Amino acid sequence: MKDLEDRQERIDNLKGMGCSRKRVEDARFTQGKGNYVDDVNLPGMLHGDFVRSPYAHARVKSINIDAAMALDGVVAVLTAKDLEPLALHWMPTLAGDKQMVLADGKVLFQGQEVAFVVAKDHYIAADAVELVEVEYEELPVLVDPFEALQSDVVLREDIKDEKEGAHGPRRHHNHIFLWEEGDKEATEQVLDEAEVVAEEMVYYHRTHPCPLEPCGSVASMDKINGKLTLWGTFQAPHVVRTVASILSGIEEHNIRVISPDIGGGFGNKVGVYPGYVCSIVATIVTGQPVKWIEDRMENLMATAFARDYWMKGKISATKEGKITGLHCHVTADHGAFDACADPTKFPAGFFHICTGSYDIPVAYVGVDGVYTNKAPGGVAYRCSFRVTEAAYFIERMIEVLAMELNMDAAELRRINFIKADQFPYQSALGWEYDSGDYHTAWDKALAAVGYDDLRAEQAQRVEDFKAGKTRKLLGIGLTHFTEIVGAGPVKNCDILGMGMFDSCEIRIHPTGSAIARLGTISQGQGHATTFAQILASEIGLSADSITIEEGDTDTAPYGLGTYGSRSTPVAGAATAMAGRKIRAKAQMIAAYLLEVHDNDLEWDVDRFVVKGAPERFKTMKDIAYAAYNQAIPGVEPGLEAVSYYDPPNMTYPFGAYICVMEVDVDTGEHEIRQFYALDDCGTRINPMVIEGQVHGGLTEALAIAMGQEIAYDDMGNCKTGTLMDFFIPTAVETPHYTTDHTETPSPHHPIGAKGVGESPNVGGVPAFSNAVHDAFRAFGLRQSHMPHDHWRIWKIASDLGLHG
Ligand code: PCD
Ligand SMILES: [Cu+]
Question: Could you tell me the sign of the dihedral formed by the alpha carbons of 339, 344, 347, 351, in that order?
Fold first, then answer.
């Protein structure tokens, strides 16, 4: 008994896998001691600021910098002309397109970078921006992607005659690519012959990640040693180093990229922005460090947006509700440059996960990318590579089909789910789902909210409404989503040609503590807490004795960064594998110390024990010390390991979400009465961190579904460039969430973990939106575009004739 208690105490001491360990990073965050880019201040540092275009489409006739240069404290004003001799006036995008760093002849969206002012302080720079005189000649503006594909107006004059783009043929001067997956003919045939077909246009509006901290960088060129140091808001610091080296010609070992603390990334900080490039050029030109920090309006207007997908769907089924086929055509508005952050092979990301959680025998998807006069981007925003679009699409199509069949939408889902014994499951659009148990999760969710009672209450509410007893309707928003995260096998995923593996390097110190460095970078996820837990369980040292370091390319092994919920599936796997290498060497050392053969030892929590002689053991601490102070024949001194992990497949987390919402027909206001979220992310590292991730992701989903949008007028003016117009939920709007889980490990991940950071956004948006739609289902509402702000909900009621 005593032994068992001892053993449990040793396990508890590790604070390893499954423990709700408190976040170690919070000590500095909650005391205002974080170190963000804007906290980097160097002697003699200069400040950069942009002159931006007020027009969405215009020719730049002239730029006069004389007045700005005359202002006391202004050091330089850069324009495209200054960057051209360095071949830096354009830069490659992550999607194989190129983008102007500074306006070259014309501007293509409101807020585009036109000139970069460098001054002694930020205020002088801002004043000088006002003094730069730019003469524009307005051009016709295209904000509608359907119109853009018909129009004679040429947006990208630089490639107007190019018939081939980075992703195949272009059929119009404003067309970027047509990307297709699946069997078109077979799908069309199934649809033609189907008993029931539901058809709908599902629009997922343009929005923006809007992290608390905007983007920024500090570049410092040490001309004597030839070293460039770059601090910045980078979700992928190593990739930034490689790109900076290729662009500038500075050898990669002479560039050090540092991502310090990041105040939220959410996909916004994956791409490379003109501000980064201009700060580098400016430090080279002036010989002084140069800081660039954008403000909130610049962040909303000019850095990467998300979504903007027009998804035309057709779904077919038998009269009994068995789905037989799915067809989808997307018109994707990419803005002025194709700057999506997607693996090269997948210009629409992983959108072809759009068959969702359902066993659909045949499917086809085609995506047309289109240029318009809007800001470039197309980042994930808490959903790996267009998975939120895909989940929203299929979860809306299921609801529309349920209406067409006059069937309960929960039942329709249940009869079409992929069954637990079908995994690994090959989807019609080419994915191999690693593991899942959808029926168990679904039944648990429906039971938890009391689904049948809710439906009865809803039916009564409709009666009462018709009888004039109430003006509030009840909506039950259902979602069962399947995520795809952990890009991802090097054989089919890359960013700018760099394969998407990830890495971990561990160094055990003589006294039995350790540092581990990873190729990823936390932006608030809590990696310093959770990755130490993985290691604690693998190597038997307490998580409290392990430092996790990320984001410095001079010290961390090469990695592809943090987005697409890839850190746990990829770097987390590398961490476990590196830990296992440490343990393998430790076993040899222990065998020598205990004078037994390697095979006579077994691992027990934090030590190697001689089989059958439990009193004879060496703890990992003993072994670490021996690795440094004793000559062990045939074994090198020291205890270190590095692992580069190329995952064999992606991981497929899933979840069942239910939102119960009251909708006021007369005011368009809504109230969320209950929100239940069941997530399955395989093996759970830290339940508390997971819960935090789910709360955050659901709140972003609430924002997107219920009010957040980047909207433009016909002239291409961004109407939502400030937080007065761009909705960010506060504690007032945020409902209470009930979280729950099932645990279906990934069969190919060393510890069975799948990602979770994005799931609540992927599943949350359709749950909120379906609740709104469901409230009006009895009155015939099939589809209404997000965001469902008060006015739009009021308008639904009005259009349905509910205002009497
Ligand atoms: N199973 C499991 C899983 C997971 N986990 C945890 O959780 C977290 C998360 O994870 P993941 O899922 O893997 O993810 P990552 O990679 O790390 O991250 C990323 C994500 O994350 C999220 N979250 C967050 N949070 C915060 N705080 N902040 C931020 O920014 C953010 N972002 C967002 C996003 S958007 Mo993208 O980028 O769009 O693509 S993608 C994303 C971490 O900590 C980890 O460790 C655990 O525990 N367990
Ligand atoms: Cu995405």
Answer: negative
Closest by alpha carbon to 501, among 647, 641, 643?
647
- Has 630 been annotated as catalytic? no
Dihedral angle at the C-alpha atoms of 692, 694, 700, 702, nearest 10 degrees? -120
Whether residue 342 has its Cβ less than 6 Å from ligand 1:
no
Per-residue pLDDT band at 313 (split at 50, 70, 90): very high
Strands 106-107 and 58-64: antiparallel
CATH T-level fold of 306-487+650-799? Aldehyde Oxidoreductase; domain 4 (3.30.365)
- Give the mutation target among 20, 269, 303, 525 for probing the ligand 1 site: most ligand atoms within 8 A of CB: 525
Confirm whether pTM is higher than 0.95.
yes
- Between CA 170 and CA 177, with CA 176 as vertex, the angle to 5 degrees is 65
pLDDT digits (tens, 9 = 90+) for 568-619: 999 999 999 999 999 999 999 999 999 999 999 999 999 999 999 999 999 9
Mutation probe of ligand 1 site: the residue of 534, 565, 685 with most atoms within 8 A of C-beta = 565
- Of all protein residues, whose CA lies closest to atom 15 belonging to ligand 1? 565
Residue 514: CA count within 13 A, CB half-sphere? 34
Residue of 383, 493, 504, 718 marked catalytic: 383
Topology agreement, domain 2-34+502-645 and domain 306-487+650-799? yes
- Record the tokens describing residue 434, joined without a space: 């690693």
What is the pLDDT of the chain when averaged over all its residues? 97
Cα–Cα dist 117/123, whole Å? 11
Residues 686-691 have a mean pLDDT of: 98
Ligand 1 touching residue 427 (CB < 6 A): no
Residue extents of the structural domains in the chain? 2-34+502-645, 37-139+214-262+269-302, 306-487+650-799
Q: Residue 311: what pLDDT?
A: 98
> Residue 393 above 70 pLDDT?
yes
Given this model, what pLDDT does residue 182 score?
Answer: 98
Q: Compute the average pLDDT of residues 23-30.
A: 96
Which CATH class name applies to 2-34+502-645?
alpha beta
pLDDT at 497: 85
Point out the catalytic residue in the list 235, 458, 693, 708.
235
In this structure, which topology does domain 37-139+214-262+269-302 adopt according to CATH?
A: Aldehyde Oxidoreductase; domain 3 (3.90.1170)
pLDDT at 1: 60
Task: Say yes or no: CB of residue 216 within 6 Å of ligand 1.
Answer: no
Our answer on whether the CB atom of 690 is closer than 6 Å to any ligand 1 atom is yes
Distance 498 CA to ligand 1 centre (A): 22
